[in-house]
Amino acid sequence: MARLHPALEPYSPSSDDPFDATKVAHLLHRAGFGATLEEIDAYRSLGPKRAVEKLLDFPDLPVEEQGDEGPDLSGIEGYPNNFAERRKLFESKTPQERMELQNMLQRANREAVLATGLWWLQRMVTGPTPLQEKLTLFWHGHFTTSARDERSAWLMWQQNETLRRNAAGNFGAFVKNISRDPAMLDYLNNQQNRKGRPNENYARELMELFTLGIGNYTETDIKEAARAFTGWGHDGESYIFRPSLHDEEPKKFFGVTGKFDGDDVIELILKRNECANYIAGKLYRFFVAETAEDGVLASLGFLLRESKYELRPLLYTLFSSKAFYAPTAIGTQIKSPVHLLTSSARLMGIDNPSRIPLMGVLEQMGQVPLNPPNVKGWPGGRMWINTSTLFVRYNTSLLMVSRINEKDLNPNRLSNPREIVAYWLGRLIQRPIAAAKRAKLESELGPRPDNGAIRRMIELIVSMPEYQLC
Q1: CA neighbor of 237 nearest in space, from 62, 81, 102
Q2: Average pLDDT, the chain
Q3: Residue 257 pairs with which residues in a beta bridge?
Q4: Number of Cα atoms under 13 Å in the Cβ half of residue 236
Q5: For residue 1, is pLDDT > 70?
Q6: More confident position, 184 or 101
Q7: pTM of the predicted model, to two decimals?
Q8: How many CB atoms lie within 10 A of CB 12?
Q9: How far is 249 from 260, CA to CA, in rounded Å?
Q10: What is the pLDDT of residue 85?
Q11: How far apart are alpha carbons 15 and 170 in whole angstroms?
Q12: Is the model's pLDDT at 264 over the cut of 70?
């Protein structure tokens, strides 16, 4: 096996470069949604190797098998439990009754989508497997489907579970599973893909966005791949293959001819170096940095191919690498709206942030779970910030501060302004800031700080540019 790029070699703590609270907080922000001071201490004691192993130690299982019942939709009036129940509702109905029933179901579905999104946000805040949820969010922006187009909360929830189960598993199996996902089959119109009338939408996005990237395939490859996926569809919540709609004739894909089906096309894609490099690059940019040294992404792509597309070895390498802990990586990523909200809840000790109009503020900031803007997902990075969204981000952070429990403002009963500022900077910013800014915060507290002064000081912290970064 080729030697890893030097930037991907394991970070090894030293007296000059310790695995300190700043590095641990960096790890727990990027591989999750931030961490409490107690969690930082616990992971710091493990050391970098075991800390990453602990984060990656989650089951590739649906949440029901992890002790979580999933979103509770039972209280939504008129929302059917499954597609069989939905179909039964329409039996023996007049056209007028069917129209009224359809309107009622649309209203119920909107409520169900909202409840599902809120459940997922709550799991990001308090769930037991933060890296699994962070990966689920990443893959949701990669294998994109939107509830605006799907119109079924149940299928969106089912897809969310598919993303969660495959989040750190085998990428090849993942692509095959998502290609059979009913919400994806609807979103990219493969439900209408049939022999003689191939629909190219899924084949195009499979290569352009999901596996290879622009420029690594031809229009002919798209047309032939679309023929291979003919007959793939779903009946309710279950994938079905419809042989009578499948094109059995030979296809020529990437210069190879055969009677290919969708799985065959995926296997041929996986054999191309561009696929591993593309996926490794997306993961690197999401978790480490927007730019990489020459050769880093190719080295990661080689690692992914050598591990037969198992994702855990790649993720372990990323989170353990020198590049991940480089000064240029720490505190340089703009928090996504979801990360800003969920990490604020975690760092401020707000276990149940549902009292805040979460979906409303997330929509204003540009990121609503289950509703990416288009098939490309969220652009991220600097695109999160403009004059409008920055105003909402500051106001949302201030709103979160107002929800901090009174007894939690000074849990250690500190009286020294310097100690109080140090405590809250360690809790919220979690990395060094300029001495002048620290002094300003101390002066705002005054000589005898009470809870009101502490809350106002916390408002200043969350209004700092540093709070928008992780």
Answers
A1: 81
A2: 95
A3: 252
A4: 11
A5: no
A6: 184
A7: 0.97
A8: 13
A9: 8
A10: 83
A11: 38
A12: yes
**Number of neighbours of residue 267 by Cβ within 10 angstroms:** 13
pLDDT at 257 over 70: yes
Element (H, E) at 224: helix 219-228
Amino acid at 389: T
β-pairing, 238-241 vs 251-253, is unpaired
pLDDT at position 78: 84
Beta bridge partners of 252: 257
Mean pLDDT of 435-464: 96
Segment 63-75 shows an average pLDDT of: 88
Indicate if the pLDDT at residue 161 is higher than 60.
yes
In sequence order, the β-bridge partners of residue 256 are 253
What b/e string do you get for 337-368 counting C-beta neighbours within 10 Å, with b at 16 or more?
bbbbbbbbbbbbebeebeebebbebbebbbbb
* Separation between Cα atoms, residue 400 and residue 34, nearest integer Å: 15
* Amino acid making up residue 100: E
DSSP characters over 334-360: BPPHHHHHHHHHHHHT-S-GGGS-HHH
Q: For residue 51, which of 313, 325, 300, 319 has the smallest C-alpha distance?
A: 319
The answer to whether residues 40 and 21 touch, using CB atoms and an 8 Å cutoff, is: yes
Q: Is the pLDDT of residue 2 over 70?
A: no
What percent of the chain is helix, strand and coil (3-state, nearest 5)? Answer: 60, 5, 35
- Residue 247 in this model has a pLDDT that exceeds 70: yes
Query: Which tokens sit at 359?
Result: 């979906």
| Secondary structure element (H or E) that encloses residue 89, with its range | helix 83-89
Q: Which two tokens stand for residue 392?
A: 């909402």
Start-to-end Cα distance in the chain: 34
